[in-house]
Design goal:
The protein has about 180 residues and is an alpha+beta fold. It is built from 3 helices and 10 strands, in the order H-H-E-H-E-E-E-E-E-E-E-E-E. About 20% of the residues lie in helices and about 35% in strands. A hairpin with a 7-residue loop joins strand 9 and strand 10. The strands form 3 sheets. The chain has a 4-stranded antiparallel sheet with strand order 1-2-4-3, with helices on one face. The longest helix has 19 residues.
Amino acid sequence: MLRSRLRACLLATAGAATLLFGLVPSATASAAPEPTTGTTAVAGTTVSGTGLASAEVQQSSGFWACTVPPGYTYTHTQVQLRVCGSGLRAVYHVVPPSDGLWACTVPAGFTYDTVQSLPSTCRNGEMATSYRLREPVDGLWACTVPHGFTYDAVQNLPSTCRAGQMASSYRLRGV
């Protein structure tokens, strides 16, 4: 147990050092969008047991940051030591939103059609809800009614829009 914690700490420190000393390969730096003002990019370190390596392959357009810029969402968190300030702080795997993406937040211009509750994905070490993002279109059954849409039918289903609970789903119509 101590050995795995030490290994995780060393990986986090190596990732932070890589970022601070500019040793990130240029191919990695050019693949990620530039963070906005107030956002600090964090090297994409993978801590054993988090499952982040497979998520990074699926969402190669993402980057690790201390905050989530407007217009983006995030798909995972990690706790890093002294990367985003003093002590242990969360870093976010930030990605542009897209239809069908499982994300931790629902950005403006999107809705969601189902949820899942998973440990250590959106809140490190805790159960948290992930949302399957959808671009709103006529006829889509969605959990929220986004701006520019109304609905013409409602259905109540278990565990679709709220993990483990009954919740309403709406058939969208554009206005």
